[in-house]
Amino acid sequence: MNFHQVLFLLLLIFLVDLSDYGVLADKTNDGYKNATKCNIYQGRWIYDNSSNPLYGTSTCPFIGLDCQKFGRPDKNYLHYRWQPTGCDIPRFNGRDFLTRFKGKKILFVGDSLSNNMWVSLSCMLHAAVPNAKYTFQLNKGLSTFTIPEYGISVNFLKNGFLVDLVSDKTRGLILKLDSISRGNQWLGSDVAIFNTFHWWSHTGRAKTWDYFQTGDKIVKEMNRMEAFKIALTTWSKWIDHNIDPSKTRVFYQGVSPVHLNGGEWGKPGKTCLGETVPVQGPSYPGRPNEGEAIVRSVIGGMTKPVELLDVTAMTEMRKDGHPSIYAGGGDRLNDCSHWCLPGVPDAWNQLLYTALLSH
């Protein structure tokens, strides 16, 4: 082998190595450039048997809502990919993500739907470098996933309302709609993804507060969507006053729909249980999600940039994606709120990845 042949071989090896780490990720970069030409949140779910999940029971030991592990008999829900109308989005490239965000902190703040998305992203990154050392710690407050080799931490802070929930000796738990006293926990991250909505509609035993408070006014009950809007406005003001956009990029995880009313898709009396295909058609036939309009209104009035992960409409179509009775709690628990993993939250993270590529 002469000198020129050796040089060519070394160059070829170098280029392949760069491609592995996303430096020459042609499809990724082309996908991003293409994605800037359309609304990536408008499109349809396409069944693609060649589109396999990036992880599974054998490649991610901390999945949690692993519906296959808990006995779900069908697998078609694993092979739907999101296809925007008029453009393509880049495939999720875990090595590229880790390289771009080496030494960075990513924080999810919110309820169990935030947790759903956090675990999904953690699994997607772990599967990209399966032999790398990692830590995964679940706690009541802050849960963490780290890959020391890349110095990256992907964390989840449980906070279902974003505003304060305080204990009162005489009244019990009071939800203070105009107060955020622990926002310092949200500082210091390079990317922060917030979410709240589901807990606001809870009633009966699922309700985790006793009173609402705004200023000096304390009431036992009020319109839930009015309370949600006041709280979200409080959060928006906190972001406007405390976040430096040059240091932290802020996202709001759009409202995730539930599928408890089969009448919305032509099956009165049914729920998500037994559903194996998405809703067909260009849009969801049920009534509009009332939380979605409030989120858009509040974010639209902010002075600091907050990007909406506008996943509500696309997720409404996925009545097949919930754990139902395969969440690990047996037949008595029919979960039509959260999402199987692998599954829909992986698409959310693919869109987050697409949005992050814009910087």
TrEMBL record:
Gene Ontology cellular component list: Golgi apparatus; membrane
Chief localisation class: membrane
GO terms, molecular function: O-acetyltransferase activity
Domain Trichome birefringence-like N-terminal: 37-88
Keyword presence, Protein transport: no
Region forming the signal peptide: 1-25
Pfam families referenced in this protein's UniProt entry, alphabetically: PC-Esterase (PF13839), PMR5N (PF14416)
UniProt subcellular location: Membrane
Lineage top rank: taxon: Eukaryota
Boundaries of every Trichome birefringence-like C-terminal domain copy: 89-354
Keyword annotations of the record: Membrane, Signal, Signal-anchor, Transmembrane, Transmembrane helix
Membrane topology: Single-pass membrane protein
Family named by the database record: Belongs to the PC-esterase family. TBL subfamily.
Name of this protein: PMR5 N-terminal domain
Source organism phylogeny: Eukaryota, Viridiplantae, Streptophyta, Embryophyta, Tracheophyta
